[in-house]
Amino acid sequence: MWKSVRALLVWGLSTAAVSQELVLETWRVDDEALWKEQFLPRFQAIHPEITLKLHSQRSADYDRELAERLAAGKAGDLITCRPYDQSLRLFQQGHLLDLTDLPGMENFPSFAKAAWQTDSGAQTFCLPIASVIQGFYFNVDIFNALGLTPPRTRADFFAVLEKVKQDGRYLPLALAAHDSWVVSELGYQNIGPNYWHGEDGRLALINGQARVTDAPYVAAFRELASWRPYIGDHPADATEAQAVDAFAAGKAAMIVAGSWSLAQFTGKVNFGAFPPPVAREGDTCYFTDHTDMGIGINAASPNKEAALKLVEWMASADFAERFSNSVPGFFSLSNHFFELKDPVASTMMGWRDTCDSTLRLGAQFLTRGEPSLTTELAEVSVKRTSLSPRWQPARPPGRNPPSQRLDGGPAPAGICTLPKAPSGALFHSGRPGPSGCDCQALAGVMGPGRIGAGRRGTPGCVWSLCYVRESRWKWRQGLVARWTGG
């Protein structure tokens, strides 16, 4: 099939080399110079007739604007692909070309391709390009001055925090607690894999073999809450920009960060990186190595043949090396071997050899439905951790009686989840309450609330989960119970 498609595309072209300009849709607004200076010269040595122009949007606007441009037939030839469901929807809508048999796709492992495949894995619609890694950065000069070494265990980690705090000159840990996604993705989902054993725990949620109220998932919240004495006097006011500035200025000893932040610190501070500490010396370590970016071809492009040539080259070792060294902190997902020039990036990529990698919990399948697991984890991570001590659990996690929260307090009335919630859903105990709802343990993670009667007189239950008929929710895989406040 692939050969016949290629033959038809070639048949439509003139036998003479014709200059063609491709347009790449991207959220990476700073990449134009990289393409012009680093990537295109290498590609044009093979295909001088093909040029490239970037159409860039801010990341926050990219998905909406791309969808509008595709629907209007105005999108570029090449599409920078978000992982999993966002790009899957575009493929299902007919906007992305099937790249399953693209030459060079064999250079990518199955876990990398899974981010841009149909649920069955039968079709691949974007070429995997890069992942980002999460961990901790530390100020080398501060560590040297205080006689500290990068912590390997949790006990070591808290000993470092305490020593920096006692010294009094530096913020022990910079954390943008104002920004819920930071607390969730760089806090909870950074340290969490060492509790739920990476892919084992993530897949257990997807397969319905575990719930996020199980001990390992709650224990990660408990550790996150114990950071509270070390992240400043007013953590709720600390934005990501302020946390980055504090670390870059040498005012913080450590920061939770992703590899995409490397450029923000390089040349400003002497820093290194370490993976999330484990419970005990010798334990298997886990870290988040998250598939971040792929490249697809607009199915409506009039320049498919030229676009295919560029994407094939992007599957090569030449592009993998150039991209990874030109954009430090974004790591090629290919199997090609190459050396990274940036020492901190090299350190982080080396964790792939010493630890087991995993994805963020809500990345695959559990993002489906409203609200998504990603959204709910962001909200719960803030409420359960550093912003208020009332969210800290004071008793061992586990299934609670209907009258108790995880912290041992009484559960307010009117908190519930959907009966027979899908695999991976939070807090469903199977215990029916008013109007067929399970008014049991949502407060155990969300904390006390002001839940009153729901809309249209649905007493004692959250409207968004309990009034709507169960049949309306069957498609919501990975549903997470929603606390609406009445």
Annotated CATH architecture of the largest domain: 3-Layer(aba) Sandwich
**Biggest sheet: strands, sense, closure?**
10 strands, mixed
Straight-line distance between termini:
55 Å
H and E string: HEHEHEHHEHHEHHHHHEHEEHHEHEHHH
Oligomer: single chain
Share of residues in strands: 5-15%
C-alpha Rg, in Å?
24 Å
Give the number of helices: 19
Q: What's the pLDDT, averaged over the residues?
A: 80
Structural class: alpha/beta
Percentage of residues assigned to helices? 25-40%
Per CATH, the superfamily of the largest domain is Periplasmic binding protein-like II
Shape: globular
Q: What do we call the CATH topology of the largest domain?
A: D-Maltodextrin-Binding Protein, domain 2
CATH class of the largest domain: Alpha Beta
Structure summarized in a few sentences:
With 486 residues, the chain is α/β, with parallel strands linked by helices. It is 35% helix and 13% strand. The chain is globular, with a radius of gyration of 24 Å.
